[in-house]
Structure formats: C-alpha cells, structure tokens
Amino acid sequence: MANLPDDNTHNDPWNGCSNVPELDRLHYYYGQMLGPRDFQTEQDFFRNKMKLLNRNLHGYGVVSGLEVAAVNHHAEGSEQKAAGTGDSRPSHVHIHIGSGMALDPAGNELVVRENSACSKIDVWAMLCEQEDEAKCAARCKEHGLTLYVSLCYMEHKHAPQRVSDACADSCSNYETYARLRDCVCVKVSLTQPAGDDRCGPCCEPYSEQCVLLARIDHAFSPHCPPEIHNEVRRPVGLYEPTTITGINWQHGATYDDRAAETFLRRRGLTIRFSRPVVFGTIKPGVIDVWKTDDWQAPNKSGEFACLPVVIQSVQGETTSEVTFKVKENLGSDDRVLIIVRTDFILDTCCRPVDGNHVGGMVPLIQVGSPPNPTNTDCVPAIGENCQQSHSPFRRRESGNGTPGGTFESWFFTSGESDPDTDQDAVSL
C-alpha cells in the first residue's frame, strides 16, 4: 500500500489500526511440505478476515434472541443470609438464556442453541466461582444486589489424542486435542460493563470482549422477586445512535388549558437525549410547535398556526436536555403538535439523532412536568402483540435504528378544569 501524503494522514480511515494481523495465506505448489503451522496459518487467514468484516460491516451486539428469563426455583434446604446484608435469600437463583446469536466486539460469532448449557444457570454459583462465598457476600454487600449478565466467546478443546514428538535425540509422547469448538460462556458481574463511546468502529476491536445481555435487579432480595431487564442490551450495529429517552409531557394526553398554557410559557417543554448533542445544531426551524384551534368542533375547520418558539440557552457546547417555550396563549380544545427535525440535531460524533417516535414509546420524565392530565383516553396505545415482541428487548426511547428522522408528539387542551389541576397550575 502506497504511503499517503503527510497532509492526508489524519484522514486515513485505517490510521491507528496497528493491531490488525497480517493476512497471509498459503501458496500451494507440487512437492510442498506442509505442517501444523501451515494449516493454522490457513485457518487464521479466513478467521481474521471474517472477524475484521464483522467488526467493520456489522459492528457488534445482539443479532437475535438471547432473552434472559428467570427460572422458577424453590429454595433448597434452609435459607442463607443474602450477601452479608442480614436478610435471608433463597439458596439459589437461576436464569435461562434463550437461543439466539450475537457478535462480540472482536468479531466472533456467539451462538446459543436450544437445550444448551444456558438453559439453567445458577447466578450465585457463577458469581462466586472464583472466590469463597464469604468474600463474594462482602462484595455483594458493597455493590448492592444488581447483577449484569454478559455472553463471552471461548474455545473448547475436545477429542484428546496421544501423539509422538519426534526429535533428534529422543521421542516423547504427549496429549493434545484434535478439535477446537467455538463456544460461549456466561459472565455474571456486579459492575456494569463499560459502553463503547467511540465515534467509529475502526478496524480494531473494543476493549470489552463480552456482549451485555441483561441487568438483574433485586437478585438475592428475600422481599422482591428478581427483575430482569433485557432492554439494556446493545442491538447489533457499528455504533449506538443517540436517541430521545424522555419528554416532560404525556404524549397524546389532554390537559386543562390553564395548566397547559402555564406549562408551555413558564416551564417549557423538555426533551432528554441518551447522550450529549451539539447545542449549536438546534437552530430556528429545527423545533416547531403548532396548534389547531377547536379541532373537535363539529362542522368547523380548525385554524392551524405555528407558535413562536424560544429555546432556552445552556452552558457549554453540548447538552443532554433541551427546553423550549412558546410565547402565545392557548385556548380550549386546542391540539398542540410538537415537531423536532432530528436530522439536523447532531451528537458529539456529528451523527444525527435517531428521532422517529415509534409507537409513542418515549416515556414521561418528571423534569418540569405539568399536573396530571385530565384525560388520557387519546393516549396512543401500543398493541398487545407489539408490546410482547418489543418489551423484552426494546428500550423506551425514540428511533428505528437509522439515524435521523422526525420526532412528532402532541397533546390536547380542554376547558374542563379540575380543581386539583387548577391549584397546581397556579403554583407552577
């Protein structure tokens, strides 16, 4: 490969990829003598190319399946003290990892098959396998009862063979293995694995070599059953797009008009992002607030108007929350539509926010939230089938996996006031 000019070195996408091995393959010819090292070189050529392709084309994360679920299990024998906290806990807590596939940061393919060893895992035994239970209990007391379950790549040697090592002076027998099998192992830890904050996958693997599958809360609590959160996993991809993780109004709800007006003009609407965005990219026209007057009035077409928006300034060049207000009064029976063009909002890697409001799933945050809505009948409901298919793995945030898009949300105002709501509105 020819050397790049000095002034273009910083633009070289392969710059800094010194740890990628050379990809040598065999050149066959008649009469060639081949040994184990030659065949290993042939295997390494294809394996390293496959892993390099996986890292740069697909990234890493969970491809499909691998749902972590609790296994119903009664305590065996007497109860033991939970992690030195003085509370009793069942002697064993078991989980099950369903079949599926993932790619780890090195590019290895992690496959869990049906009826594998992952069908029943003793979490406590796996957490404490490297130390005695007293030390393990002390660590649990220090870190709490939250565990993280990850899937890691490993090679399993099998088919042992007795071979002869012929040398110049003597011959010796030793045992080796004729087969290597790609396998997986489960890692249980008390600390959350670090996330990959790199802007690009490069061609080198990330330092963390396992794929996070789930977080377990109240793992050994005698008072609460374990809560397993599969949504913490990373979907397979070159990077995790920045998303909208919270808004301070309830999407699709109806608010008393006084409360809504005070909320819009004094506290403002707040949007929270999963990671910091560049505040300078939130320019006029990126965020619009529209209202439709008397949208429910019979035999009348509501007037559609764009309200003036004032974006609250922040300290620094980046921010994880954006608050904006409007300077116009609302009336009764108005529909307020918020449009955020996330194609134009860039994160610190200069990538657009993945902002599509899929299914109205972005949750309510309590920062500057208005009083409780007077009516939630218009709140879009996610179908039961969609809830079942998304809830184990999908985080409550915006996005469909593709950067950019348009975030849309709305709420309604009503002249019917609630005394409690009016009281809260005055105190805003």
Explain what you see:
The structure is a single chain. This protein has helices at residues 36-58, 123-127, 133-143, 257-267, 384-390, 419-426, and strands at 61-65, 68-71, 80-81, 88-89, 94-97, 100-103, 109-112, 121-122, 147-166, 171-189, 210-217, 227-229, 244-247, 254-256, 269-278, 287-292, 304-307, 309-311, 318-326, 335-341, 406-414. The chain is of the alpha+beta class and 428 residues long. It folds into two domains: 36-232, no CATH class; 244-426, no CATH class. A hairpin with a 5-residue loop joins β6 and β7 (109-112). It is elongated, with a radius of gyration of 29 Å. Mean pLDDT is 76; it is low at 1-16, 74-90 and 419-428.
Strand-helix topology:
Blueprint: H1 36-58, E1 61-65, E2 68-71, E3 80-81, E4 88-89, E5 94-97, E6 100-103, E7 109-112, E8 121-122, H2 123-127, H3 133-143, E9 147-166, E10 171-189, E11 210-217, E12 227-229, E13 244-247, E14 254-256, H4 257-267, E15 269-278, E16 287-292, E17 304-307, E18 309-311, E19 318-326, E20 335-341, H5 384-390, E21 406-414, H6 419-426
Question: Which structural class fits the helix and strand makeup?
Answer: alpha+beta
Put simply, the count of helices is: 6
Oligomeric assembly: single chain
Average pLDDT score: 76
N-to-C SSE series?
A: HEEEEEEEEHHEEEEEEHEEEEEEHEH
Proportion of strand residues: 25-35%
Which stretches of 5+ consecutive residues score pLDDT under 50? 1-16, 74-90, 419-428
Per DSSP E runs of 2 or more residues, the count of β-strands stands at: 21
| Neighbour order of strands in the largest sheet | 14-21-20-16-17
- Main sheet record: 5 strands, mixed
Total of domains = 2
For the termini, the CA-CA separation is 66 Å
Estimated helix fraction? 10-25%
Structural Rg: 29 Å
| C-alpha geometry | elongated
